[in-house]
Specification:
Elements: E1 10-16, H1 23-30, E2 36-41, H2 48-52, E3 59-61, H3 68-77, E4 83-86, E5 91-92, H4 95-106, E6 114-123, E7 129-140, E8 147-148, E9 154-155, E10 161-170, H5 180-190, H6 197-209, H7 213-227, H8 235-251, H9 255-268, H10 273-285, H11 289-301, H12 311-328, H13 332-345, H14 350-364
Parallel strand pairs: 1-2, 1-4, 2-3, 6-10
Antiparallel strand pairs: 4-7, 5-10, 6-7, 8-9
Helix pairs in contact: 6-7, 6-8, 7-8, 8-9, 8-10, 9-10, 10-11, 10-12, 11-12, 12-13, 13-14
Length: 366
Amino acid sequence: MNDSIKKAEISLCMIVKNEELVLERCLNSVKDIVDEIIIVDTGSTDKTKEIAYKFTSKVYDFEWVDDFSKARNFSFSKATKEYIMWLDADDVIEENDAKKILELKNNIDPNVDIYMFIYNYSFDSNGNPKVVQKRARILKKSKNYTWVSPIHEIIVPSGNIVYTDICVNHKKIKINDKDRNLRIFKKMESEGKDFDIRQGYSYAHEYFYRKDYDKTISMLNTLVDKYENTYSANSRFLYKSLLVLADCYKNKNDFEMEEKSLFKIIKYQKPGIKACNRLGDLFYRKKNFEATIFWLQNAIALEDIHEDVNIIEHYYTPNLLIGASYFYLKDYDNAIKYNNFAWQIMPNSIACKKNNDLYIKKKNNL
């Protein structure tokens, strides 16, 4: 055991605006974990500040200037404890994860600069995480980490980083301003901002959300052309860009360009879980079931280290489609086997039950 292990004190830093529906829920979930709560309000017109004052006297006003990084950096500047943790108002920490944070806090390793948490950003109708991210969540204040980018702001992780299994759940109730992100990007563009690859990807993704696939394709192709010659240095967002391009072409029923986008990934790197999944899905729709099985078995075999994937896309869906592929190949034993793997992950899956009944029926009719 590291002899330097000790108990830490944590400042919670948040920026808020018109969050009266969710702020109290968030703060109740974290108030017994942190030692200081910093709330920076960027212009609320509801009861957000009134709720904040129930938990802390450290409530500050910050004039909104269409720049999330400036607001978050201001909140960090008010922290007085050795470590900083940040949340959004619609985030919630469940009881089991709160216990894990307390254990971490009571046994902090001062040699670690950043603790990464799992961020369950959205959920499906069954409550399973659908979009999963990994975010720098507890940071050593003395390292002076700085938020960058006015929109889709981020702290670029550096130093000694530890990945944990601690989760923060994003449980949004309503969207206050659905056009905010796109408006900020357009403002940056009008001011002559030279977008980096992350910002360029995020800007294009705003059009993908709006199902404007032609605009998304145009923007991402321009981005890929710009950075492709430096793929290794920009692999993270080139990978993401090519995956979204493939999704756009899928929605346009353009098999050829979808496949071209995915195989461009393979040209430069070992494909990750998401790319293998997309290739498996593509070949399944093309009824090439041997290729489907190959790519999806690769997806399952890969470890999720830094890629943002959840158990549904890593294990459930690949096993489900492998089972279906074996069914079409008339290998009913393997069809049942892989369908059962998927079923174990989602015991309430209607698709798995229907498949199981069909596969057993076909097997017994041989």
